[in-house]
Amino acid sequence: PNPASELISVEFDANVGDDVFLSIIDITGISKIEIRERIKETGYQSLDIDVSFLKSGIYTIRTSVGKNVDA
User: Fold this and answer.
1) With 70 as the cut, is the pLDDT of residue 2 above it?
2) Which helix (H) or strand (E) segment is 31 a member of?
3) Cα 51 to the chain's mean position, in Å?
4) Each residue of 19-55: pLDDT tens digit?
5) How far apart are CA 39 and CA 6, in angstroms?
6) Partner residues linked to 33 by β-bridges
7) Burial, 14: exposed, middle or buried (Cβ in 10 Å; 0-12, 13-18, 19+)?
8) Is residue 33 within 8 Å of residue 24, measured between CB atoms?
């Protein structure tokens, strides 16, 4: 919700072996950043993402952890 100029942190809960997919999508629906990772430790996780190259604007973050999808 707050403006970001360089780095954002996305926090979530996950289990060992969960696949994580994160996408940052611009207002036109184009995915600008995609990250895929497999979780190695159960529990609270945090991903720091460099967004310094993105133009000013409104973006949506879509996350999928295991079988859960949030937008």
Assistant:
1) no
2) strand 31-38
3) 11
4) 999 999 999 999 999 999 999 999 999 999 999 999 9
5) 25
6) 24
7) buried
8) yes
